[in-house]
C-alpha cells in the first residue's frame, strides 16, 4: 500500500471489511482510541 494520495478512510474500510473487525475495535473519530485497531 503506501500511496499517499489514497485517503486513510479507504484503508480503514478495506482493513475492517477484510478482517471482519468488530465494532468495539474500530476507530471512532473524536473518541478514545487507545485500544482500537488503526493504521498509522
Note down, in words, how this protein is organized.
- By secondary structure, this protein is mainly alpha-helical.
- The chain has one domain (1-27, 34-40).
- The chain is 30% helix and 0% strand.
- It has 1 helix and no strands.
- The two termini are 12 Å apart.
- The relative contact order is 0.20.
Per-chain topology:
Layout: H1 8-19
Give the tags.
single chain; 40 residues; mainly alpha; globular
In short, what is this structure?
Helices cover 30% and strands 0% of the residues.
Shape: globular
- Largest sheet, described in full? none
Series of secondary-structure elements, N-terminal to C-terminal? H
Number of helices: 1
Please give the alpha-carbon distance between the first and last residues: 12 Å
Mean pLDDT: 82
Helix content: 25-40%
User: What structural class results from the helix and strand content?
Assistant: mainly alpha
Percent of residues in β-strands: under 5%
Low-confidence stretches: none
Number of strands: 0
Q: How many structural domains can be distinguished in the coordinates?
A: 1
Integer-rounded radius of gyration? 10 Å
